[in-house]
Amino acid sequence: SNSGCALIDRATGNVLWSASVTNAHSIELLPKNRVVVASSLSGDQLILFDLSTANKPLFKTPLRSAHGVVWDETRRVVWTLGFDELRCYELQDWATAVPQLKLQSTWRLPDPDGHDLRAVPGTSELLVTTEHNVFLFDRDSHDFRPYKLLQDEGEIKSVDVHPVSGWVVVGRWTERVQLLNPAGELV
């Protein structure tokens, strides 16, 4: 959103937690009742919160045009996407009242303007959207390669893969949502 983020109980609609965050673009639940928020343009940082204390950041670290965050339970790391880089952070001092995200590695994006970051279910890959393309990043080999279903297609806002059906959901800068594998569209 433009000024905040929230965790909402879908069944009741009740707000469980909220915080004021400039251009909150992505939010991800982390172990020990914590969340990390990507604060994009004019925020340019990752912000760590505890769900028991609304609006009180525990930790901040700069990331130009922070857009994507993904918790990787298997590797116990947080993957983040900024304007021109993908980063991997370790959880540091996690059992304390002053937890941090410690930068482990950084990779330059093959194309600038990183926008969306999603894990591909059942694989070691992350989907990365940029201004001009969609890439797969292998979390084991640390290699980028074009995502063949959407290769060389720009202006894609988001991509996700359904964990059971395998449907690929593509959000563009329009009011329509494209479905692939099998093809379809939501209006």
Give a written overview of the molecule.
This protein has 187 residues and is mostly beta strands. Helices cover 0% and strands 51% of the residues. The chain has strands spanning 4-8, 15-20, 24-30, 34-39, 45-50, 59-62, 68-72, 77-81, 85-92, 100-108, 116-119, 125-129, 134-138, 144-146, 156-161, 168-172, 177-180, 184-186. The strands form 5 sheets. Strands 3-4-5-6 form a 4-stranded antiparallel β-sheet, with no helix packed on it. A 4-stranded antiparallel β-sheet has the order 7-8-9-10, with no helix packed on it. Strands 11-12-13-14 form a 4-stranded antiparallel β-sheet, with no helix packed on it. The two termini are 22 Å apart. 32% of the residues are buried.
Task: State the share of residues found in helices, binned by percent.
Answer: under 10%
The helix-and-strand class reads mainly beta
Helix/strand order: EEEEEEEEEEEEEEEEEE
Cα gyration radius (Å)? 16 Å
Q: Major beta sheet, specifics? A: 4 strands, antiparallel
Oligomeric composition of the shown chains: single chain
**Overall spatial form:** globular
Number of E-type strands: 18
In DSSP terms, counting alpha (H) and pi (I) runs of 4 or more, how many helices?
0
Mean pLDDT: 94
Give the uncertain stretches in residue-range form: none
Distance between the termini: 22 Å
Proportion in β-strands: over 45%
Strand order of the largest sheet: 3-4-5-6
